[in-house]
Amino acid sequence: MKIVVTGGLGFIGSHTVVELQNQGFEVIIIDDLSNSSLKVLDGIQNITGKIPAFEKLDLREKDKVQDFFKRHHDVSGVIHFAASKAVGESVENPLLYYENNINTLVYILQELQQKPEASFIFSSSCTVYGQAEKMPITEDASIQTAMSPYGNTKQIGEEIITDVAKATNINTILLRYFNPIGAHSSAEIGELPLGVPQNLVPFITQTGLGLRKELSVYGDDYPTPDGTAVRDYIHVVDLAKAHVIALQRLLNKKNTAKVETFNLGTGTGSSVLEVIHAFEKVSGKKLPYKIVARREGDITSAYANTDKANTILGWKAEATLEESLASAWKWEQKIRK
Ligand code: WQD
Question: Are 126 and 265 a contacting pair, CB within 8 Å?
Fold first, then answer.
C-alpha cells in the first residue's frame, strides 16, 4: 500500500513514517524543507533500514500537486502534516498561514476526490478547543473562536474536510493532538526547532545543555495547583502509532462515519513546574528558570479525555512524562555533539 506523508520530514511526520514502514507500508514523503532537513531521511533509514521515497514539493503550487498525483495514481491514502504551526508567527503573518495551511489542503483534497475512494488523515490540534470549559476535554467539546490564525486554520481545515467528505468518496479521520514531545528511542530522529524554540520542552532541553541561559516560565498566576499552566504532553512515538492505527481503520473500512475525530493525549495534565521538576529528575540537572508574565494567547489548562481513542481505535499513550522528557534530553545531547 502506497501512502503519502506530507510534511514527512517534520517532527511528527518523520516519527509516523517510521511507524508506517514498521507496518510494511510503502511511503512517499512530500516536504518543502522549509522547516526540516534531508538529514531526517538518513535518520529514518538508520531506524528502519528502508529509505522512504521523497519529493521536495511546495504544496502551494497547484500544478505541482496535480502532477504529483498523476505520477502516483496508485496512492491509497494521505497523512497530511504539512502546515505552518507557530502560533506567534501566525498572528504576525496570517496570510502566510491561510495560504500554506488552507490552499494546500484544498489542492490535495481535489486530487483525492478523483479517486474511487481515498483515506485521509488530518493533523489537527487541541488548539481548536481554545480554553475548554470542562477537563478532561472530549471530542464533542465546543469549538471556541480561534485564539490565533494558526488555530483558525485548523478549525477551517476541519470544516473543509467535513463538507468535502459529504460530497466525495474521501474517508477522513481528524486527529487532534495535545502537546507532542520527546524523540525516537534511537535518538536518530527528534524535534529540530529552527531558531529560538517556541515550545516548552525543546527550550528546556536546550537550557539543560547550556544553549539557553534560563527558561522563562510564562506566568505562575493561573488558577492551577501550582499557578503554572497545565498541558497534556504526549510522546511523539505514541502519537505516530495512533496515525497508523487510524489509517488502517480507514483502509480496512472499519470507520462508521465519513469523518471521525479523536483526541490524542495521555489523559493527564502536567503543569510547567511539574515538567521542569520531571526534567531535573531525568537529567540530573538543576534547570535555571524565572517566572515572567503570561504569554499572550495562552490558555490555563488543556488535557484530553482519551476514552474514544482508547475504545474505538484501541490505542493508548504508553510513555510517561519522565520517559518522554528522557527521550527529548537524549536527542538534544546527541544532536549537539
Ligand atoms: C506549553 C506551556 C506555555 C515555552 C502550542 C500550540 C499547539 C501545538 C503545541 C502545534 C504553556 C509554557 C512555553 C516557554 C513557558 N502546536 N511555556 N515557557 O502553547 O500549549 O501549544 O504548541 O500543533 O497547537 O498552540 O505549547 O510548548 O508553547 O507551551 O512557560 O519558553 O509551556 O506558556 O503553558 P502550547 P508550548
Answer: yes
The neighbour count for residue 111, using CB atoms within 10 Å, is 20
User: Cβ neighbours of residue 45 under 8 Å, at least 6 residues apart?
Assistant: 51
pLDDT (tens digit, 9 = 90+) per residue, 116-133? 999 999 999 999 999 999
Return the C-alpha torsion angle 332, 37, 20, 167, nearest 10.
120
In three-state secondary structure terms, 281 is helix
Q: Is 97 a catalytic residue?
A: no
Q: What dihedral angle (degrees, nearest 10) is formed by the CA atoms of 101, 125, 77, 82?
A: 30
Residue position matching grid coordinates 517510521: 18
Instruction: For Cα atoms 109, 16, 230, give the angle at the middle one, nearest 5 degrees.
Output: 95
Is this prediction's ipTM beyond 0.95? yes
User: What does the block give as the cell for 245?
Assistant: 492505527
What letter represents residue 293's amino acid?
A: A
Dist. CA 152–CA 261, nearest whole Å: 17
Which pTM was predicted? Answer: 0.97
Give residues (CB < 6 A) around ligand 1: 85, 87, 125, 127, 177, 179, 198-200, 203, 215-218, 229, 231, 272, 295, 298
